[in-house]
Amino acid sequence: MSDAVDVAIVGGGAAGLMAGIWAGRTAPDRRVVVLDGAATLGAKILISGGGRCNVTHDVVDADAFAGASRHAIRKVLRRFDVPATVAFFRDLGVELKREETGKLFPVGDRARDVLDALVAATRAAGVVLVHPWRVETVVRDVRGFLLAGPAGRLAARAVVLATGGRSVPKTGSDGHGYAIARSLGHTVTRLLPALVPLTLPRGHFLTALAGVTVPATLEVRSAAGKRLVAFTDSTLCTHTGLSGPSVLDVSRYFLDARADDPGVQLVANWLPGETPASVDACLQTLGRATPGRRLQARLPERLARALCAEAGVDPSAPGATLTRERRRALAGVLTALALPITGDRGFTHAEVTAGGVPLGELRLETMESRVTPGLFVCGEVCDVDGRIGGYNFQWAWASGCVAGVGVARAAVGA
After folding, report:
1. Which contacts (CB < 8 Å, 24+ apart) does range 314-319 have?
2. Closest CA to 367 of 29, 22, 45, 131
3. Confidence band (pLDDT; 50, 70, 90) for 412?
């Protein structure tokens, strides 16, 4: 690698490799390099989707994302949508299959196939991949940018910042990209772990049910009782609290809301679609039947018994013996159980980072900085985070493509 290039892409993850591919394809005569500080390239791709890599979702729209405005996110997603993603990977030799959930995986169920295809496409585009080469600082100068790190210094006419966030730091995502963005004049919104398991107090009755999984609705309520957001999906009890798709999806909304309003609550409905009133009415019809037997038709036995105990109800007692007070207590526990969330499992266990560089500081048609011309920003370092199910990868593919094309055209015109 020479000590001067036209385009330096900082970060060799999903967004960085995508930016490299499209920069190389758009300006094949320009010198483009991808720099990554990790010894193993694409580690986050390899561990995603349980080692299968959930490449995208069959339907992706801005409503599945948080952080920046939906309008801004939509503008970027439209430039490289799901059909474009499927066609892109097909051209690389990676066919995708749709599962019942709408998630798209490689037909071989191997994340390695996705990474190998991206790396091969990057090199085929004439882009140089260098790792480990950690970028500690990026400084603007009259000729462009000067990048420096333990491995040396590199001059570049334009830079793409694709460092990722702070999630799963063992893969190399330590959040240093935010410091680089700030040093170049950008602001960074509040950073929180997203798609992260939540914790309950030690000894809470749900922690004794580790391994129990059930569909449930989790709702974030303001201190005033206003419903802010809700997700219904599989919910997993763990020895430290709660996990599963519904928990991961709701986590960033709960954590973000609680940062501004300590009185925010997370409320669980273990019988999605039911209300306290509908359950109370059902309990009144039990007669000689027991609440435990009735609940086991919809809930795992361990959970049914634990919820009854929480409400002070004997699950084996005839329903006709339930007092009005006990009926209503059980109905409330079943459909509106306030969860005393103590925190989360942190960035180590988070799948993505909430917060980052605001899209309002970028030109969305190119992802170029409005603050520092010649700097382009894409991927998780942006203030964009999506639901579980391939949405965050789609943001990486879309924003990486837009940044790659944008930086290449800027380098050609420079």
Report:
1. 315/290, 315/291, 316/290, 316/292, 317/290, 317/291, 318/286, 318/287, 318/288, 318/289, 318/290, 319/283, 319/284, 319/285, 319/286, 319/287, 319/288, 319/289, 319/290, 319/291, 319/294
2. 22
3. confident
pTM above threshold 0.90: yes
As for how many domains the chain has, the answer is: 2
As a 3-state breakdown, the chain gives helix, strand, coil percent values, each rounded to 5, of 40, 25, 40
Q: What is the CATH number of the domain that holds 224?
A: 2.40.30.10
The answer to whether residues 172 and 205 belong to one domain is no
Identify whether residues 239 and 116 lie together within a single domain: no
Shared-domain flag, residues 211 and 359: no
pLDDT value for 331:
97
Q: Are 230 and 220 in contact (CB under 8 A)?
A: yes
E strand intervals along 245-303: 265-269
Residue with tokens 């170049």: 184
Q: How confident is the model over 184-200, as a mean pLDDT? A: 98
Task: Show the domain range for 322.
Answer: 198-344
Residues 268 and 394 in one domain: no
| 254-285 confidence digits (pLDDT tens) | 999 999 999 999 999 999 999 999 999 999 99
Q: 127 and 64, same structural domain?
A: yes
Residues in contact with 409: Cβ distance below 8 Å, sequence separation at least 6, in sequence order: 26, 27, 366
Do residues 136 and 251 share a domain?
A: no
Question: Residue 82: how many CB atoms within 10 A of its CB?
Answer: 21
- Ramachandran sector of residue 43 (left: φ over 0; alpha: ψ -120 to 50; beta: rest): alpha
Residue 279 shares a structural domain with residue 297: yes
